[in-house]
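Section 3.1: Structural characterization of target chains.
Under the original work plan, the team committed to producing a structural model for every single-chain target entering the pipeline before any wet-lab resources were allocated. The record below documents one such target. The sequence was received from the expression subgroup and is listed exactly as submitted; it comprises 419 residues.
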Amino acid sequence: MFTSEKGVVEEWLSEFKTLPETSLPNYATNLKDKSSLVSSLYKVIQEPQSELLEPVCHQLFEFYRSGEEQLLRFTLQFLPELIWCYLAVSASRNVHSSGCIEALLLGVYNLEIVDKQGHSKVLSFTIPSLSKPSVYHEPSSIGSMALTESALSQHGLSKVVYSGPHPQREMLTAQNRFEVLTFLLLCYNAALTYMPSVSLQSLCQISSRICVCGYPRQHVRKYKGISSRIPVSSGFMVQMLTGIYFAFYNGEWDLAQKALDDIIYRAQLELYPEPLLVANAIKASLPHGAMKSSKEGTRCIQVEITPTSSRISRNAVTSMSIRGHRWKRHEQPDNSNDTTELGILVIPEISVTNVAGERTGNGEKGRTLGEIDAQHIQGVQETATDPRAESKGLPEIRRQKSVRKMMEDGINAPGRVQF
């Protein structure tokens, strides 16, 4: 570490101690623009034997519990690097040099698991329903499945996943280590949109190193330092994938691609189904070319939404409109005197062919649907179910003509037609 970088860190440490509380918001706003300070702090964290590591960790914890939102995010941006340094020191079994880092991680964890009143927090996550549109899908494109999901969502059967309450920890052990680190990465991912590019780069780099250290791929990646294998949990890898997925679309394509491949490599060796499922889903959804996203302005995941206006009909389709459309196709063009008002439909012609000497006329004027249509349908249904009509063709034709005759005369027929 150079003398100039050490001087920047020392000035930062002394400046905050003499800062009045009224000027804290203004100080927090200007702090994120000090790129030289951020790079110097990264170098301090990467040197476990540095004399500045302990005061830096202490001040970062003061930032986090100050209650100022921007100071909290300033501390969160170093979280991936702090996790890597702690795991690397733990793998080398030099626990004494990581005491201040462990204290900082435990302090952040214990602050996040409780609310402002000191009560344990329970985080809830509602699993999105396929019946409700999002930036990723449209219910109309799913088909009949959307109807099933819609029926379930109307009955309040949306699945909610709860996390917590989490117990407070006084020290990190082999049993609770990744429970704490997974929750810390969850807090980091909740503030991903506020993280600078250097923090996303650090997340991708430490994800690769954690997954390949101690394995043959470490020589391919040319990672120097520790050669011991670092144990990981399935949930911890899933949280790493969440941040890497965000880094893909926010200017860190190459590092994110390398980290994704290393996580798949480690998940296959460990036979972890959850990271494999998430990682392969991310890999399948990536575009073929690299995303050249701007590192300035709003960060978001880019998706394409297909227009839905062409699939939505402006006029509601009802049984009446379908029936009217069917009748209108049989209208004669010369029936200019027939009425076309609502509720008055034209009855199509009934033509009986292949019978010598018998043929119905065309061009009869239509009658109202309420008087004639029900009788016509009832008569046709009865001829189809009559056992005599199945064996002989002529009685069926006579029955149809009898129904036609009754319709022309306007006689209300009883429930069954008698001959």
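The mean pLDDT is 74.
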